[in-house]
Amino acid sequence: MKLTHLDERIHVLDAETDVWKVVQDIAESGVQEEAFYVCDIGDIVRKHKEWKLKMPRVEPHYAVKCNDSLNVLVVLAALGTGFDCASKGEINKVLELGVDPRRIIFANPAKPASHIRHAAALGVDTMTFDNESELHKIKSLFPAAKLVIRIRCDAAVVQCQLGMKFGCNAVTEAPHLLKVAQSLGLDVVGVSFHVGSGCGDAPAFYRAIASAKMVFDIGTSLGYNFHLLDIGGGYPGNKGSSIDKIAEVVNTALDEYFPDPELVRVIAEPGRYYVASAFVLATNIHSKREIPNGEEVAHIMYYINDGVYGSFNSLLYDHAQVTPIPLNAHLGKLVPSSVWGPTCDGLDQVVEKALLPVMPVGEWIIFEDMGAYTLPVASPFNGFPVPKVHVVADQSIWFMLKDLLPLTEDDFVMGNTPANLRIGLDVGGSGSIQDWAIPLSPRPVLCHQDLDLDSGSTLEKAIMDHSPLPTSVFRFDYVEVEPINYECY
Ligand SMILES: *Cc1c(COP(=O)(O)O)cnc(C)c1O
Question: How far is the CA of 443 from the centre of ligand 1 (A)?
């Protein structure tokens, strides 16, 4: 069995264990200090099942940009979804799993030329457009592509609007674009739209499908035979949310406008739906500041080890709202509090105001629904690492997935917690810090007087003789410990 530097295998949970128990076990191992995620593969599988039940006619093509964690893509590939890719990087990521290029839609209406060439070379031939210049580009780079015209139809209530950037007007622009495509001899096969991400206006799907039907008819009048309808993304994915309303609207509209499944294949591009609730983030309070008001504590500021430059970039970019949940119950009264990220920027605030119990430094604060538009955008700004992901699945999920390509038994490991926790490796807990210092290789001490600033050669020699410091002197986070090296210590 291969043990890698990071244990990226999916941990198969025993019957008594759920995600919260895993969070608790890792957080309270005495070994863990960094923020970490627990990703429950079972949650993704359940979402897929629900989709299949509620919109049986619509083939999901997961929008990779939402969360491109390898395990997410591997599981969705095993479940047989398609993929919505926006760039050559995303196309590569999906194809590397062995996914058939025909299962990918290149759903970016404005593509750099090199990315179109790349798609052509790899057989990813279905792609969207919403403007004339894109048609000319495709004509010269990939004339055999199967094109999907993206129209604009905005939902009235959305978490993130997209219509201002993409989608042509179905009435005033689409007819002309289709004529241009026809005159260039390009193969247009269908229509797509995206009502906006985090759609809170289910009837928007009805309006959009009706508009798409109109564009299908324009295509027919030009001699095209459209057979693909792409109803985009927008489906909610947080715990407790439901796609029931949207599914009802979509199914009704499909029955009305595209009743024959033999004639029109319907796909969608769900992103947040699949991943939002699968990821739980555990953060650690590393510092706190009490703001007094006379004798009283008026307000407590908690500083945690992930913030808006990391996972919580979603507060800025995805207009997300998050709820802090203390891992442990604390007695006593609730105090007006705020939660801040670890960087030195005043913008780095995670929760502006909340009533929270009084918590000590070292306590963990948990955030649910952290799977969508968090990790792929996070940066290690100011030297704070992006949290690692611990992937889990219960046994029934393991049985289901272990023989489905591209997963095999080797992708799984029995046990709830990371390998080094199980072998009792204690990192930064009770032991002396000396035990965990990485031995430094001997190096010359570079003092100011060593540098003869007039002499280039001495300076050069000093620089050449100076071996670099290791990037990290102490190892705190479990995932940075290689169990294989255990015996060295
Ligand atoms: C971002 C995006 C999606 C995914 O949207 P969700 O709201 O997360 O479902 C789908 N399609 C396209 C073209 C996108 O840009």
Answer: 52
Q: Is 66 a catalytic residue?
A: no
- In single-letter form, the type of residue at position 155 comes to A
> Model-level pTM greater than 0.90?
no
Best mutation site among 51, 229, 269 for ligand 1 pocket (most ligand atoms within 8 Å of CB): 269
Do residues 282 and 23 touch, judged by C-beta distance below 8 A? yes
Closest of 374, 247, 267 to residue 322, by C-alpha = 374
Mean pLDDT, rounded, for 202-210:
98
The verdict on the CB of residue 237 being under 6 Å from ligand 1 is no
CA dihedral of 168, 175, 181, 132, whole degrees rounded to 10: -40
Q: Give the residue from 373, 382, 478 showing the smallest Cα distance to 423.
A: 478
Active-site residue, from 85, 344, 447, 488: 344
Q: Are 328 and 403 in contact (CB under 8 A)?
A: no
Q: Which helix (H) or strand (E) holds 38?
A: strand 36-40
Distance from the first to the final alpha carbon of the chain: 22
Residue 31 near residue 62 (C-beta atoms within 8 A) = no
Q: How far, in Å, CA of 114 to CA of 325, rounded?
A: 46
415 Ramachandran zone, left/alpha/beta (phi>0; psi -120 to 50): left
**Which domains are assigned to the chain?**
41-276 (3.20.20.10), 279-383 (2.40.37.10)
Backbone angles phi, psi at 23, to 5 degrees: -55, -50
Three-state secondary structure call for residue 457 = helix
Is the pLDDT at 447 greater than 80? The verdict is no
Pocket perturbation via mutation, ligand 1, pick of 104, 162, 205, 317 by most ligand atoms within 8 A of CB: 162
CA–CA dist 489, 487 (Å, integer): 5
> How much is the pLDDT for 430?
31
Share of the chain above pLDDT 70, in %: 84
> Among 26-35, 107-116, 307-316, whose mean pLDDT is lowest?
26-35
> Ligand 1 pocket, 356 CB below 6 A?
no
Ligand 1 proximity of 107 Cβ (cutoff 6 Å): yes
| Torsion angle of the four alpha carbons 152, 156, 157, 160, in this order, in degrees rounded to the nearest 10 | 30
**pLDDT band for position 30 (50/70/90)?**
confident
Q: Which of 175, 119, 115, 117 is nearest to 149 (CA)?
A: 175
Under the banding of pLDDT at 50, 70 and 90, the label for residue 464 is low
pLDDT at 416: 85
Interval 65-77: pLDDT, tens: 999 999 999 999 9
Region 166-173: mean pLDDT is 98
Q: 318 C-alpha vs ligand 1 centroid, how far in Å?
A: 12
